[in-house]
Design a protein that fits this description.
Structural class: mainly alpha
Largest sheet: none
Number of domains: 1
Number of strands: 0
Shape: elongated
Distance between the termini: 54 Å
Strand content: under 5%
Radius of gyration: 27 Å
Helix content: over 70%
Number of helices: 4
């Protein structure tokens, strides 16, 4: 009986492997990977933009609170200029990655 049980368990394992190999779809895996990459980059973009806003405002508030000379007060950062720089550096790769992601959606 031991040999029959062993053969039966091996047969179940082989059937399970066959079902798993039939369900493998590389196109679906590519879509999931593209989605993860795109969403990670978008989340990172918004986190970086938010952090830039917060850090710039905190810097300006601390500078105004602890600096009393005109030279110091003239060193404040313009939020618009900082955001333009950050979005300029990150915006192009974001567009590329979003295009790569949506390319997979329409194929």
């Amino acid at each position: 009986m031991g040999k029959i049980d062993d053969l039966h368990s091996r047969l179940e394992i082989l059937e399970k492997e066959k079902r798993e190999s039939e369900s493998y779809n590389p196109a679906e895996l590519n879509d999931k990977t593209r989605s993860k990459v795109a969403m990670t980059f978008v989340y990172g973009f918004f986190i970086l933009t938010g952090a830039t806003l917060i850090i710039t405002m905190v810097y300006n508030v601390l500078l105004a609170a602890y600096c009393e000379t005109d030279f110091c007060l003239s060193r404040t950062l313009e939020v618009k200029d900082i955001l333009l720089a950050v979005i300029g550096y990150i915006g192009s790769p974001l567009g590329f990655i979003m295009g790569f992601y949506f390319k997979g959606k329409f194929e």
